[in-house]
Amino acid sequence: MQDLNLSKFHSFFIYNSTFSKSEETETDKIIFYYPETTTLKEQLQNVGLIEALTAYSLSFSNKKCNSLHLEKNRYVFFEPEKDYWLVLIISNPFTYKMKGNEKIQKFKFNLLSDQTLLQILKNSYRIFYMFYQTFNDLVQKNSVLYLKSILAQFFPFYLSNIDFSYSSIENTVWTALDGIQFCSVHKNLYLRIKCLMNQVKSNFPYVKNSMLLFEKNLVWSSFETEETRNLYHFMCSQVLGQYKSTKSKEFGKEKPTVKLENKESTVFSYQNLILGIQNLVADIKEEHFLTGATLIENKVVIKIPTIFVSESNTQKYQLIIYKSRNLFLLLFLENEAPNLNEISFYQKLSTLIRKEMQSICELLNNGQDEDEKIDQVFNYIYFNSINLSVKQCLNEKRNFSLTDVIPQLVAVSDELLRKKSQIPDEIDNPKTQYLRFIIEREIPFEIISQSKKSVWIVGKKTSNHVFFLIFDQKNVNLNSIEEEMEKFSSALFKDYFFD
Fold first, then answer.
1. Are both 347 and 387 inside the same structural domain?
2. How far apart are CA 80 and CA 86, in angstroms?
3. Which pLDDT belongs to residue 38?
4. How far apart are CA 78 and CA 64, in angstroms?
5. Residue pLDDT, tens place only, 117-137
6. Which Pfam families match (predicted)?
7. Do 200 and 276 lie in a common domain?
């Protein structure tokens, strides 16, 4: 098989057409473009293409389109706020094919998933909102120039650390599902965790919400589901993610300044915050605060970020993160809560939670052995849309290569996940009527695909669940597939306890 050149990041930009009043001010509509070395002519061409496409699509439906497939590139675009568009361009993967003595590129544009790329855009906006609120808020409270400076500070760092290669399950199907990986917890341990959270709130009344993660698994959250997903994604992709950048020497120092209309304004540095936290995660293996009273260059420095957990919850929180080995406790306090700048506050909090956190971490570590028994039997991905639970296992003893499986998984998942969004408003077409009938009544449907290496992939979607089960046994038939699905369901849901 010819070597596949993986997909690559091409460009990303944000524009607002209302900022341009005439042809002379056409460049004003571009409020951010990355990489910044892109020529102004190419920037305007790409913005104009998306403007024309979204306007033209309204001739056929009241929903604007969100992707464009070309031979060399894939465009996806998303409007998080009125008139503000985020656009991502990805270079399609390709192989080389010999035609006579000439080497020709053959693009594999069907290996990319709109759902995955759109989710990347949505996630980037969620994280931005957590620390800066909406684009329009920044413009109304400051200016367009201020918004541009914030975007220029946030997005280059954020984008440069996303893997666009489509080389793993995590950056394909996992991203598209946009779920939460829960930690299976015995009910007695769950009650013990809940008791600890209540103790914290009782002793520190300014703590309004809490969240507990074991590695990249959610153990506890007092937030609503959507808010929990935002915070979970932030922790897993940012705090616990693997950034290309090395240690940040700037963390703990003065915030950077930008010049705005002949004035200097101090701005929050997202990059310094994330790299600073990651340095602490990597360097300190035992108990320590990651935000709050943190240890920087052998000195205690109090740094508390302010965040907004979701667009539906406009309350401002101050975030304290405490790490105990591979257990992470997030505490969300009222904005401007008293005593947060005093070391005694953190000493008292640490005394209350340290031993119990150590004990809970030990019990959770022991509990992972039971989960591995299920994971040794099946190769699967599972998603529950009610609580956003997502779980996967591709065990080490599998008889197939991920390189062979990922294209089929991408195709199957994209087909399952895009069904609902693709139904047009017009229902005159009999085929459309039938598809709408299936979706609205949540009738289960499944897709079965076989790779060139004889690996079978079954994608099944019911009212609230999505399954992907991978079979690498030879001579598999439809009856044996159904039997394996039943065995899988019984094994996965046995003895699980969720609140």
1. no
2. 8
3. 96
4. 9
5. 999 999 999 999 999 999 999
6. Intu_longin_1, Intu_longin_2, Intu_longin_3
7. yes
Into how many domains does the chain fold?
Answer: 3
Confirm whether pTM is higher than 0.70: yes
326: in domain: yes
CA 112 – CA 116 distance, rounded (Å): 8
> Which of 161, 176, 191 corresponds to the end of one domain?
176
Same domain (yes/no): 164, 311: no
Amino acid identity of residue 235, one-letter, is: M
Residue appearing with tokens 């590139």: 73
Q: What is the DSSP letter of 178?
A: T
* pLDDT score, position 413: 75
Shared domain for 50 and 161, answered yes or no, is yes
Q: Report the alpha-carbon distance of residue 428 to residue 425 in Å, rounded.
A: 9
Question: Which residue do the tokens 């046995």 mark?
Answer: 494
| DSSP H or E run through 402 | helix 402-418
Alpha-carbon distance of 432 to 420, in angstroms, equals: 11
The answer to whether residues 42 and 118 belong to one domain is: yes
Could you tell me if residue 81 is inside a domain?
A: yes
Tell me, yes or no, whether 112 and 259 share the same domain: no
Which one, of 489, 488, 457, lies nearest residue 470 by Cα? 457
Dist. CA 474–CA 481, nearest whole Å: 12
> What's the Cα-to-Cα distance from 235 to each of 204, 240, 275, rounded to whole Å?
23, 6, 13
Q: For residue 113, what is the domain's CATH number? A: 3.30.450.70
Residues 294 and 443 in one domain: no
Query: pLDDT tens, 179-203?
Result: 999 998 888 999 999 999 999 999 9
Domain boundary among 350, 369, 388: 369
Q: At what angle do helices 225-234 and 114-132 cross, to 10 degrees?
A: 90
Examine the domain organization and report whether 398 and 443 are in the same domain. Answer: yes
Q: Are strands 292-296 and 389-393 parallel, antiparallel or unpaired?
A: unpaired
Domain that holds residue 436: 376-493
The pair of three-digit structure tokens given for residue 142, joined into one six-digit string: 């400051």
What is the DSSP secondary structure assignment for residue 253, as one 8-state letter? Answer: S
Nearest to 349 by CA among 200, 196, 148, 193: 200
CA angle 283, 361, 299 (to 5 degrees): 30
